[in-house]
Amino acid sequence: MDARGIGFDTSAGRKADAGWIRRFLMDAAAGFSAKVKVAELREKSQAELTQTLDQYKRDLLDLKVQQVAGAAAAKSSKIRDVRKNIARVLTVITQQNRDAVRAKYAGKKHIPIDLRVKKTRALRRAMTKSEVSRITLRQQKKNIHFARRQYAIKA
User: pTM above the 0.85 mark?
Assistant: First the structure.
């Protein structure tokens, strides 16, 4: 087999399947792609992501129409790929929106509940260090008037 994966497969001793090239080129011409890279999606702007999402939704609709019309079983795997691509695009859009809101509320006193740190219920309700160290007025008076006595022990 040569570097492109086309030609003779020496290990099996038969010619490699060249039909996948034809199928790949037909799918590429139709606008179907196998798997979109999330790193590529993160580089796009919000408008580009929305256009990509619309394109994938149209592709999914076309594939479903072809499936109902009785197309080949290979379309079902393409439907799955397109659905996963839609999910990836939506995930990146959501992450970008959350990052923008996080940046907006950075340094503010009140943060939206869904952006706060989850932790556990007990940890969220626990007193802060400053609250623990505070002393009531009554305790302050007790500390002043009834200070702890110090005894010197003769050795």
Answer: no
